[in-house]
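Q: Structure tokens for this one, please.
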Amino acid sequence: MNALIYFFARGVVAFLQVLPLAWVARLGRAGGGLAFRLDGRHRNVVLKNLTLCFGHEKTPAEIRAIARDNFRRIGESFAGAVKTAAMSPADLRPHFDFTGVEKILPHGTSSGPQSRVVAIGHFGNFELYARFGQFVPAFRCATTYRALKQPALNRLMVALRARADCRFFERCTEGAALKTAMCDTGLLLGLLADQSTKGVRLPFLGHDCNTSTAPAVFALRYHCPLHTAICYRVSLAKWRIEIGDEIPTRKNGLARPIADIMREVNHAFETAVRRDPANWFWVHRRWKG
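A: Here is the predicted structure, written as tokens:
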């Protein structure tokens, strides 16, 4: 069964990668719209999350419209990620832009630029975070991931990301290698920080939820500046990553409380969600407990 699923998935990947990106995006949106109708379980999760956060300011019809568009956006992003994984930087450039790069560009030292930590989330085509280093070569990009339970599908996922020029560290098995990499200079480490996970309980969109402390912990431990980055959908098959201002991790030379640092990360994510509610991955059960 695993082999059958793998060959089917590889066939879908091959099919999408030969099509123009705009076609792939439209197919993804159509698939997302179909999923909204058929996938009642995830549709209910999205509607419940949106109602929790926006029920006091939006009508049920408005919330349902955001949920429907969210499914379409997710379909477009996932299909687009499959296609963009096979595109060269030159071919990808018209579809991928970024702002705020000056906030992280190094001034340059004899030992190399200072490494930085970037708190990222499931916004837009979030796989494009891994391609950032191909356009800003001052840094080597790195991030973490959780291996899939099916080895064959995990190999396919790893193969899709091979062209990104980004180092992927498996969270459970490659922690030591990541720590070694953080001791070097010139590393731009992106850490997903918008899922319910072990950490601290902090408010997000008006309600407390478990929040990862990894961005703050890594920034403090390795004396790295900390930023946020948001991937916005600009139009069909076009995305832009916006780099946020540096979030202070120390005050008067002393480490700030981790909860205070992550509260600012959550605030930056809240601003991004409110700016474009359909752009975030609402199918997460973010507010557990």
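A few notes: The radius of gyration is 19 Å. The chain has a mean pLDDT of 92.
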